[in-house]
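Note to self: the last two entries modelled the partners one at a time, which told us nothing about the interface. This time every component goes in together.
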Amino acid sequence: MANGDIRDPNRRGVVRWKPKVAGRTFAPADVSERGAETDIYGAALGAMGGGISGERDKYIQENLGRFTDPFVQADLAYRTMTNQRSGAFSQPQGMGTMDMLSALLGMGRGGTSTGPSASDRLALRKYEDERNDLQRQREALAGYLSSGGYRAGSEGINQAIMDMAAQQRGDVEAATGRALENIAAGYGQAQDLTAQGFNALQSYLAQNPNDPYAQLVAASGVAPQAEGANILSAYGVGAEPVLAQVAAEAAASQQGAAGFQNLLNALSAAAQQADVSRGAEARMAGTVAGAGLESQRAGYRTQAEQAQAAALAQIAQRQAEAQLQERVRLAQLEEELRRQLVNAGVIPPSAPSQAPVASGQIPMAGQFGLVD
Amino acid sequence: MAYDPSRFEARRRAYTQNYAASGAANAYARMLGQQRGARARTQAREQYQEAQPRLVRGLSQRNLYGPNVRSGLFNRAMQDFARQQTRQMAEFEQEQTAQQRQFDLEEARLLEQYRQYLADLEAEKAREISSAAQELYAFRVGGM
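The predicted structure of the combined assembly is written out below.
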């Protein structure tokens, strides 16, 4: 540090400063001794008034406790407290709040004044009240954070989210149950109807075989007569050729009957085959209809179960989203609380987050490093 | 399509009516055929009966038949006459028998067709009941 630097505490007699506190001028008892202090003190005031930062801030704070001058201490205490309320300046090292208050109350005892005036005491009282209020607010904020009180409403919201999801899941389960009941009952009805229809068909086919050709018999017709044979005998003529003709005609008639019977047999066989085919068709149709109904039922059940799964998944997703939103809100709230406590000087800015939301643990009051 | 039994009953009545009409027409045609056959046979027999004396008279005029006359030609002519009559009457019978068989066959065919229609109707009814059951099932489960 170079000579002549205003921050050098050994530098003397450069700045002569008679500060005024509450309109009163204090006269230093030993000007030469106080010159150095006021030198530094002036620098400190300038720093506090215009805002301090960096090395100067650190330097002033480290050396403010070295001042022994009552006036300097009192003025410093007042200004420090005032700045501390606004968070612009921290308390000097080695100097408690009560020390500063005492310095403030006793300021001027080494000077021309005999004690604080009534207005000073009023200002001090006002300051104490405000300070106490601030302290209570800080403690309340710290307690709100450390006790997890800010989470109370969140637990209710989480419970409401879970209750709502449980209710919705119950509704979905109930709806799916009703759907499955309808599917089962509808299947039973449809199966009964289908079975009745095809049973009636098979019963009808069994009672009404369609083979009218089986009832037909190919009659050989009227036996041919030996027409005129009696006349032949009357004339004494032999009837052998006529009888031979009768036999030939009878044979032809038999052949015709046999041919017709063959035709009937073929038609009857075809009709019986058609009957058998129709019966098999009816049974197969009944079987296919039953299988179709079973497939339909399986399809309906699958659809119902898929709809249930989709609904449950949607409910779970909405629940997770709602819970995540609540967690984010909690984290933001906690961060805001921490920020306010840091700004108020209750916890240091570098204090690591206790992450009570993630872990579910609430940091204790001592972890915030409360000052004074 | 919803199951409607009245449609089937209407079709059943139509089939029955059609079968009855066709069967009646066939039976009537059969009766007419029998009549025609019997009439033709009777006429043919009468013609033969009328022709027989003329045949004998003609052979007699040619001295092929008479008292103490008995020729082989007369015998042959009379046998041919009787054989022809027998054959022609048998043909009438066979023709009428064949015609009656045709009517029987037609009657059987009509009956088979009628029963076929009724069986088709019953099968269609069963299928429609099954289809209606499926539709009702779909309605019951909410048209999924």
